[in-house]
Specification:
About 10% of the residues lie in helices and about 45% in strands. It has about 180 residues and is mostly beta strands. The protein has a six-stranded mixed beta barrel. A four-stranded mixed sheet has the order 10-7-9-12, with no helix packed on it. Strands 8-13-11 form a three-stranded antiparallel sheet, with no helix packed on it. The N and C termini lie far apart (about 45 Å).
Length: about 180
């Protein structure tokens, strides 16, 4: 379980002091709940995110435990460090928008024909309840040749999960190398 601490003040000086001490600033929000301003040890947060198996995970802040989903994060453009994380409460029975990661399996035929595999969307926007939220979309790209792609409408259909992306949006494809 990821452990953090509640922030006393949400001012700029407090955030700078926490960042100097190795903390990552985060906000947790959700419908019909008050926002929770918190901070996590940066290295613990990164280590936990890499090892977690599901999109929904528990967070302990003080004496309270919340189930949350990472909605967005901001990175420094130069150093690529994570600066800030936005999380949302995972409330069962509540339909919300989430971003589900896309994973690929196989080696495309187009790679042998001087093509390059390109991710147009690394995360796909969906609208569903937390109970039916998929951990990822696994796509088999072994049949893709140069110029072929998998569109949002080609994603596997899951009961209770609606893909919000336009049906004609490419998720992953193979393009000709320059």
């Amino acid at each position: 379980m990821l452990e953090g601490k509640l922030r006393d003040s949400i001012g700029k000086s407090n955030a700078k002091a926490l960042k100097r001490d190795g903390y990552l600033i985060a906000n947790i929000y959700g419908k019909d709940r008050d926002n929770v301003h918190c901070a996590f040890k940066r290295n613990d947060f990164i280590r936990y995110m890499r090892s977690k198996q599901t999109l929904v995970f528990p967070v302990k802040l003080g004496s309270d435990t919340y189930d949350v989903v990472v909605q967005d994060y901001q990175k420094d453009p130069v150093t690529n460090d994570i600066l800030h994380v936005d999380m949302m409460f995972a409330i069962k029975g509540h339909v919300a928008n989430f971003k589900v990661p896309v994973k690929v399996v196989g080696s495309p035929i187009g790679l042998k024909n001087k093509g390059v595999l390109v991710f147009s969307r690394k995360r796909v926007a969906v609208k569903c309840d937390v109970a039916v939220l998929p951990n990822s979309y696994v796509l088999d790209v072994s049949a893709l040749d140069v110029g072929h792609s998998i569109l949002a409408r080609d994603l596997p259909q899951i009961d209770g999960v609606n893909v919000i992306e336009k049906p004609s949006v490419a998720v992953v494809g193979v393009i000709k190398a320059k």
